[in-house]
Amino acid sequence: MNANNRTHAINVIAGRTPDAPSANLPPDTSLETYGEDVFGEKEIRAFLPKSAAAKLLATVNEGKPLDPSIAADVAHAMKEWALSRGATHFTHWFQPLTGGTAEKHNSFIEPAGTARAIQAFSGKNLIGGEADASSFPSGGLRSTFEARGYTAWDPTSPAFIKRYSGGATLCIPTAFCAHTGEALDSKTPLLRSIQALGKALKRLMAHFGQPESRVSVTLGAEQEYFLIDRGFYLQRPDLLQTGRTVFGAAPAKHQQLEDHYYGAIRPRILKFMNEVETQLWKLGIPAKTRHNEVAPAQFELAPIFEDLNLAVDHNMLIMEVLRQTAERNGLECLLHEKPFSGVNGSGKHCNWSIAYNGRNLLEPGSNPKENAIFLTVLLAVIRAIDLHADLLRASTAGAGNDHRLGGNEAPPAILSIFLGDELSAVMKAIETGTSWSARGRTKMKIGVDTLPPLPRDTTDRNRTSPFAFTGNKFEFRAPGSSQNCAQNQMVLNTIVAESLDALSDKLDAMPGDFNANLQKLLQRLIRAHKRVLFAGDGYSAEWQKEAAARGLPNLPSTPAAISPFRLPANQALFEKYGVLTRGELESRYEIALEDYHRRLRIEGAVALEIARSMIRPVVADEFSKLATAISLAKKDGLKVGVTGLKALSLKLGAGLDDLHVKCERLDRALAKGRHEDLLATMADLRHTVDALEYLVDDARWPLPKYREMLFIY
Length: 713
Ligand code: ADP
Ligand code: MG
Description:
The protein is of the alpha+beta class. It contains 22 helices and 19 strands. α9 (267-282) packs across α10 (308-328) and α13 (421-432) packs across α15. The model is unreliable at 20-24 (pLDDT under 50).
């Protein structure tokens, strides 16, 4: 890792001619291949006996409980299908609390006599698996003597095939639990929360005289990411080990000109995107939009929204496909929330809504009854966010995301809701009981009047709001790009379930005319929770003050942000809705805290190592050369140049001393392990190193620079 390697890498990149369009593989646009690697409805019908197919589809499409007697048939069908698609192995695919996905492959091959084998996959293999859980985080849930973990088939997310060059594996989405049944993963509580929300919604809908119907919670997750050339990536130990650059001076031009956002996508990146999408479409993942993001080298992919559980699995796959396809293209996909300081970080906007009997309840309706339901659900969400902002904030906490939230590029750590002009006016009208329409002076009667038309694509979208109503859904913008959406969606579902129930309780206790009662209830709700509504600039310092005055929590760093997981009232809430037991919630706290500290320690150690072993020798060497030159010049009685040499050597010398002092401080902070000290000493050291980057001979700087990584690809 020296300047020669760097120069070589840059030369290789510079010498790489972008593929001529004709040389590119044509993207696969045939509709036949969409979903061809998914064991979906078509495959279920083709490979399963009729009655078993009907039973499985009832579970998949209508959420009916699974009939275990069909397991053997389903396993056989899946195996036949997978073999026909070239799979040699199967795996239970799950989402442990590391934040990633996990798989352990088993071949279909089983011995049958001497030098003979059969291909087998039993119902038992499909339904459950045993995995050594001892190396997965459990946050104290699993005692060391009981290291087994169990995976359980989730039939609501279809099995799929993962391909790699030369082979393929059948993947079965599963939940992952300890022997006690406690969840060791993200999927289990997510599924429980979807159930809880469904139950609470059905109860509320009964007040509106709606017959019991299927509830679906939907998620559309917009995935942001960076791409840099792998040649650079491999020469940055900090990127390699922590996913972010701990040093790097700001280039003269970064994102000031705002010329990257929605700009023409470069051919090399388009080729990458086409490859990603072709794979995603085969996996039945509806990748829809792609564009350049705000920061240089930053991009976004958004699929069309789907049922929440499936959308979460799909997002996990999207991240994996992005990473692997990047590597094949000589690129590195950075999913960290803040790979580069000074330019925007990456988030994962979670667009969320609930549908009842196929109708989106967050879509303003076309008749008074639909509107009443819309406003009621809307207010239930507002109430939930106001009362449980701390929990939602906790669900997005993490060492990476801390750099984003509150950095004037992403929503602040304060949770507030943006409703848009029209809806805010409706809220005001309900609250004050005044007229809501400019035309008439009538009061809006909930359940009797219709809403004024609410334009879907309002121009006054507020990008600084962490939780924005965007016409027919809420867009939660705090989640980080690397995070599993299940974390925050599980919390959102639970707090909204609680809120819906609270409204049902109130309505139950109000005798008399339903519409009049509802009107009163909604009015009270707005009065009680309007402090969480905010339409101004979420980045401004005034909002920080204003939010504090309103009593809204503002917890910018992870250790504080996750503390609500330990509050007894919150533990009782999750327990009441059967989403997480006290122990399970406690374990999430422990894991998040430990993960935070570990990441910080790794970052500190990497920074120290780079500063001492890569930066310091170069600075020292340059300084000593200068010193030698100065003394030679003096000896020879040179009249010019000495001033310049001296000035530079003074600066370099001071930088060298500074470097020494700050490395020592970071070293001590690492030994002590207090996160505030680690953050402060790392930032301090960065300051010195970044200043030196501007001084030291460019050819000898040992790390790829921002202006190279962000612009040469
Ligand atoms: P923007 O960047 O303007 O927010 P995008 O098109 O990038 O818009 O992303 C919007 C996301 O919201 C998409 O994934 C879209 O499918 C999703 N979405 C649209 N309607 C719903 C809904 N009812 N529930 C959940 N997600 C939705
Ligand atoms: Mg968005």
